[in-house]
Write a structure and sequence with these properties.
The protein has about 180 residues and is an alpha+beta fold. It has helices at about 15-30, 50-70, 75-90, 155-160, 175-180; strands at about 35-40, 95-100, 105-110, 110-115, 120-125, 130-135, 145. The chain folds into two domains: about 35-45 and about 95-170, Roll (PH-domain like); about 50-90. The chain contains five helices and seven strands; from the N terminus they run αβααββββββαα. Strand 3 and strand 4 (about 110-115) form a beta hairpin. The longest helix has 20 residues, at about 50-70.
């Protein structure tokens, strides 16, 4: 009995060149057509000046002193923790994320929003902000803000308006994040 016939041979459908081409064609057909793609920061980062930190720190210290004088110790702890979180968050740089728009929906980093779950979209373009906002449907409908980076907003509007309705009259410059 020949021992070479007893050893299991690795079987791979990709070892056959014809089969490899067929599998590649099937994978390509399964992938949705990519309409747009770009990279952008997760959120806009605002540089804070030394004066901003001094004023914010003085306000936090005053609130902590007042909380201690009025014997509201939990408030003092909460203000100190909040001030620490704001300080740490203001030094964190936003991540770069990949944004993909296909015939099926919008991918933002690891999250996918199918067009069927998007109610509408709108663009916010001004001196400080260039962003796409989408409103999702469902039980916990939410507004998702996607930074445009260097992507042409006219092209984004043209592409998305073929798939989902554009909300008119919505202009939500998120100024609260600029202050904090």
């Amino acid at each position: 009995m020949d021992e070479t016939n007893l050893t299991p041979q690795p079987h791979s459908e990709l070892s056959d060149p014809g089969m490899a081409a067929l599998v590649a064609k099937q994978r390509q057909a399964a992938e949705p057509e990519l309409l747009l793609s770009w990279e952008a920061v997760e959120y806009p980062h605002y540089e804070r000046t030394r004066t901003w930190y001094l004023i914010a720190g003085a306000c936090a210290c005053l609130m902590i002193v007042y909380a201690i004088v009025t014997e509201a110790y939990m408030t003092a702890v909460a203000v100190a923790l909040l001030a620490g979180v704001i300080y740490l968050y203001s030094h964190e740089m936003p991540a770069i994320q990949q944004v993909l728009v296909s015939r099926l929906g919008i991918s933002v980093g690891p999250r996918f929003y199918p067009f069927a779950s998007i109610k509408n979209f709108w663009l916010v373009i001004n001196r400080d902000v260039r962003q796409l906002s989408i409103e999702t449907s469902g039980r916990f409908g939410q507004n998702v803000v996607i930074q445009l980076g260097e992507m042409d907003p006219v092209l984004v509007r043209k592409t998305l308006s073929q798939e989902i309705p554009e909300a008119t009259g919505r202009d939500e410059s998120n100024r609260s994040s600029a202050v904090l």
